[in-house]
Amino acid sequence: MIDREVIEATLAFALRNGGDFAEVFAEDRRSHAASLDDGKVEELSSGRRRGAGVRVIVGETTGFAHTADLSSEGLREAAAAAAAVARGGAPAQPVALADTPAHASSAVRVAPESVDKARKVALLQAADAAARAEGAAIRQVGVSYGEGTRQILVANSDGCFATDTRTRTRFAVQCVAVGDTGMQTASESPGRSLGFEYFDQFDPEDIARTAAQRALMLLTARPAPTGPMPIVLKRGAGGVMFHEACGHGLEADLVKKDASVFAGRVGTSVASPLVTLIDDGAMVDEWGTAAFDDEGTPTQRNVLIEEGVLTDYMWDLARARKDGRAPSGNGRRETYQDLPMVRMTNTYITAGSDDPETIIENTDRGIYCVQLGGGQVNTATGDFVFGITEAYLIENGKITAPIRPANLIGNGPAALLAVDAVGNDFATWAGTCGKDGQGVSVSAGQPTLRVAELTVGGTAV
Amino acid sequence: MNDDLLELARRVAGEAQPNEHIEVLVSRGRDTDVRAYRGAVESLTVAGSEGIGVRVISEGRQGLAWAGTLEATAVAETLAAARDNARFSEPDEYVGLATPIDVASAPIPELSLWDDTVLRESTESKVARALELEAATIALDARVRNVRSASYTDGWGASALVNSLGVEAVSASTGASCSVSALATDGDETQTAGGFSVARGFAGVDVAEAAAMAVTRATRLLGAVSIPSRRVLIILDPMVTRSFLALIGAACNAESVQRGRSMFGERMGESIGSESVTLIEDPTIQDAYGASTHDGEGIPTRRITLIDRGVLRSWLHNTYTARKGGTTTTASAVRGLGSAPGVGARALFLAPGPDDPDAILASVPEALYVQSVSGLHSGTNTASGDFSVGADGLMVRGGAFAEPVREVTVASTLPRMLLDITAVGSDLTWLPGGGAGQTVLIGEMSLAGRDA
What is the pLDDT, as a whole number, of residue A241? Predict the structure, then answer.
């Protein structure tokens, strides 16, 4: 994308007035999307985004500029703008660039651009037919396919020089069902860091059937109950609960600003001893995976909570440098136009030893969640919410009636301490995490587990 | 300054072959963003961006492509990609471009959306604003010792849209704002809330107002606890009202209606709200931050009354949904560079009522004032209208705020909520991101909290 000599010159130029750190992050992203709605293939769209962001850090201050012009002149101009925060200091010398070693990134077997558009369109049509075949009550089906390949280059004045190619594929189906109780929608949208070989693992017709059956089930669902009760989360239902309950609260930038309830708690018990929480940017093929984070730090498996004890936060370069420790591979940004910050990658609770069936049998009255929607957290108070999109009542140890969507609310530390059963299975869920206006791809995972008490915000008071 | 955008859009649209139509959107912008923390500049970003989006229609098939640069080879590749994509979508008789006749359907609104101070003020004075904001916030109350972030942002954007049927629309606008997230602590407890000030240019941004807003909203939540589940009257803060109105607006979108995804689908002409509810979309209002002279297809905007004293009167349309529905566009097309025009509201608001917020609070013996909600998007089913959201706020008794409340949810349905609106405040406030809100009183909703 950019010659090594041009990068070296840009970094030197960025530090000519002084400074502690300079970085060039460049990307070239090609994406393609196709969608079907109301029975018609209606939108095929292709995109190209290419540019570089130059960052200069002087003491506590970061200067940042970005450009779509990757020539040496364009990069110099961006470097000058970013360096404007460092005025009149002695020039600083960048360390010579050395290739940063890393484990193999998710190697793509079938590059998406090698598959012709007609084949992708056919997948949309097959999914549409499969969803509608589930029942006449399925009135509307929306199907979408998205692929993106990003070439990344990160280089900095500490000598890092990392390049990577990241490919992601996602297929989504949304269904509207209409019945006596009104209209309900449901969706299913798995994503992976894979090329077109994604479709060896995920069958569009299965995805469509899952979404359609979920929508049909919601037609028969009764209003969700209200108040505190035990919640059993099916494996993969949405580690979004842990993403919200403690994930954001363990991001070092929020911790260091005293905006997290987990500040100052390393070494203390923050969860039930059954809980071990990991963030791992190197998990093979997962939605949040990459060889390097967006600051050039190789991704790795980070143990955040071990058997209930808080062991570490997640770090980006700036926070890690400040604390005099190694970064953890959690410095991410949405595009070259954004500053990186601490973000999760693939965050999950490790499997335990309980049989999932037994967990349900041992629950007198509660909710069994099969799919969670999005959520939100106030890291300063620890209060979080997340939506349940497919769930059932548990009555006397048995799964009974489906319930309509509702929000669950809780408080992070309390919810973690209340985990009282962890199953021996496991699955993940792909989504987009938003923070400060930037969305990044993440996955969240957990085994079937039970939280002794969360509040269900239903309408049946 | 941005004449080259119109020239480029004309050139690319002019490449249309006899059997095709082309629509080109070209844009450019520049932003300055300053974040302050602990009395120093945490980050300073100054950057520009530009891009092109091309829509090609050929024999009723539509293809799209975009690029984040206006460099010549990328522009040529974008046109080629859009043409190729058109070959694979299915023909749709309603797909088409805006025409000069559509454009002549309403006068171009007179709007002054450009404030030069965004370009003329130095970066140093913008940096000073962000630092002032943090200092002002911490100085207001001893319980606010810190902020999570304090920022000043401004920028300008310019765009040109040209299509091969002869429609041309150019626009340029500026915006400036400051925002702060205050952290209030009392012993072990921390509460947080935001404050902001938004304007067309540097001169209008009021740092003191943003600081006061954040400090008031954060400190009044100190001591908040969850309360037992119950039914309770609800009063919405203006920003919460605006968030709910955005969902109602989305259900009045002809695209959702025609695809069977709107909770109001079959109800045109029916009473769907109380008499207090008159919902209007009007991008011609100068004070609205979503104000715009044209929509995303190049057609002049105009005022549309969606709900009139509770009765559903109109959907929002673009030319596609208008063709499909046998009606005329309401100039409500919205589009990004890489997408076909959708439908959306830019400046949605409820017609204000006679009572100010104090009068509304005093009009009921007891209610929950909802200051903020969380999980609104994850907790709302847009097809059925069911919603369940986390809420923070204060109980109201005898016309005054009483104990603060947190860790509860309120739930109902959007159709039910519209019918139960009993009073709409006079405090109409235009908010960042388009749209306005005000204090609103609603009948009882289910609140889920701790066990009694």
Answer: 81
